[in-house]
Design brief:
496 residues; disordered C terminus; 58% helix; single chain; rod-shaped; alpha+beta; 14% strand; Heat Shock Protein 90; 3 domains; Beta-Lactamase
């Protein structure tokens, strides 16, 4: 069946060529017949030479615009011969040396040449207009189809298929820098497996006229996204438009991917918040029961030294677990933005003294130095927030500072914000960890196995500060020491 179809197609093509030749021959014969008819009618009616020449000129213009310079030249010679034989004396004789014959022939030839050139330009312009209109229609179809791409799949393979089908190019290749993949369609040589990738590596586009291959960098306002390689007869402006449409498709895919990741992260955060909230509440009741029992055993007495030590250990660990549950519940509230911070009722110096009087600073009070600037003495920060942050900072200083080294707590005002810092000398916080240690459950590698902790405390500190439009950060140096900062918008109240 395929051979029959191919033979039918070959016969059809040959018949089309034959039919075109027959049509052209009929047109030439018709032009000759028109010359003959004009000659006969003009001779019978004894028309003047100028009128006959004008009629001949009309036929030559029509032939030149329709068939071209060679056919028009033949009709011009035929017209001059008719003029010379029938209308110029001596009639019924050829006088090829007559200057009038050569002048008429020159006029006819010049007219034929001008009309042919104008007709050719018009044909070229019409062809270009048709080509550009077709290209615009194809670009519109591609842009419409690109909006229907499945954004759950990489855009490269889908765009390659669309460009190959809509524009009918012999080959197309797309390189996506983000994923590092190249997708191809069509007839590429073995040495052109990485045509688009190599274009991206070169950092510039080009047009190879010999192979009809065009290369373009796919880029947006932020930079390069990949590269496009096409093989086919396409205008450079069309190739530029294809590169721009490809960049838009890549942009949409990346934006959609980021939105998906953000949605997944949001759902993950909501799930973690719910789990922490539930876990904190679920642990509260059994912990309270265990702590009550251990405290009761200590009150009843009658325990030997080993039993007393074990019960005391249980009571102490229950207290730690109770604090951990409180942190989990507070973190869940901070995630859901349910925490409201009341207006402070203590000035900054009294608040720091109250924190140092709590069990938080137990065992290191003799190492702690407090410096409150005059500008910060009348500041009244949020009591619960600063208490929680200071307690966490002091606990970190107790864990990570070198034994016997000083711990300094300072407070000062800076541009309407209270800046509280806790300084200690001990382990250095690496640059790459200075932001991440405020993430939930993150612990630096050099301390994760040596110092106990959960990685929750500093994340609560940051969430709490952000809930009050504050900010936390750390500065650390192996020689100078480590300083944890809290900046918080406050109002100073004087005369109280």
């Amino acid at each position: 069946m395929s051979e029959t179809t191919a033979m039918d197609g070959h016969i059809g093509a040959r018949w089309m060529k034959v039919s075109v030749r027959i049509r052209h021959l009929l047109e030439d014969l018709f032009a000759c017949a028109c010359i003959a008819l004009i000659t006969y009618c003009s001779f019978v009616l004894q028309a003047k030479l100028l009128a006959v020449s004008s009629l001949y000129l009309l036929i030559i213009v029509a032939v030149a615009s329709r068939r071209g310079i060679w056919q028009a030249s033949f009709i011009s010679i035929l017209a001059v011969a008719c003029l010379d034989y029938f209308f110029m004396p001596p009639i019924f004789h050829f006088n090829i040396t007559d200057p009038q014959d050569w002048a008429a022939l020159a006029a006819f030839e010049f007219t034929a040449l001008v009309i042919t050139r104008l007709s050719a330009k018009e044909i070229i312009s019409a062809g270009e207009a048709i080509f550009h209109r077709s290209s615009m229609e194809k670009l519109y179809e591609l842009s419409r189809n690109s909006l229907l791409l499945d954004l759950h799949e990489p855009p490269g393979p889908q765009l390659a298929v669309l460009i190959h089908r809509i524009f009918g190019v012999r080959a197309v290749a797309l390189f996506d820098k983000t994923s590092g993949r190249q997708d191809k369609m069509g007839d590429w040589r073995p040495d052109e497996d990485n045509a688009a990738r190599e274009c991206w590596l070169r950092g510039g586009g080009m047009d190879d006229i010999q192979t009809d291959t065009s290369y373009r960098i796919v880029q947006n306002a932020s930079g390069s996204l990949g590269a496009l390689a096409l093989r086919g007869k396409l205008h450079p402006l069309v190739v530029d438009a294809l590169a721009a449409l490809t960049a838009i498709a890549f942009d949409r895919y990346q934006s959609f991917e980021k939105e998906e990741q953000a949605d997944e992260a949001k759902r993950g955060e909501q799930l973690r918040t719910a789990v922490m909230d539930s876990l904190g509440h679920e642990l509260k009741t059994p912990l309270a029961t265990v702590q009550t029992a251990s405290s009761g055993l200590l009150v009843l007495g009658g325990l030997n030294d080993s039993q007393f030590e074990l019960v005391n250990l249980i009571d102490h660990e229950c207290l730690r677990l109770n604090k951990l549950c409180a942190r989990l519940l507070l973190t869940a509230k901070l995630e859901s933005k349910q925490v409201g911070w009341p207006e402070g009722d203590l000035d900054c110096e009294d608040l720091i003294s109250q924190v140092l009087a709590s069990p938080t600073a137990e065992g290191i009070k003799d190492r702690i130095e407090v410096r409150v600037d005059e500008s910060a003495r009348d500041a009244h920060p949020d009591r619960e927030l600063v208490t929680m942050v200071l307690a966490q900072y002091i606990d970190n200083a107790r864990k990570y500072s070198a034994p016997g080294t000083p711990i300094r707590i300072t407070a000062r005002m800076s541009e309407g914000e209270l800046v509280v810092s806790v300084y200690n000398q001990g382990s250095n916080v690496r640059i790459e960890d200075r932001e991440r240690i405020f993430d939930r459950f993150y612990r630096a590698l050099d301390s994760a196995n040596s110092i106990p902790g959960t990685g929750i405390g500093l994340s609560i500190v940051r969430k709490a500060a952000e809930a009050r439009h504050g900010h936390v950060w750390v500065v650390s140096d192996a020689k100078e020491g480590t300083i944890f900062f809290l900046s918080l918008p406050v109002s100073a109240r004087r005369g109280q």
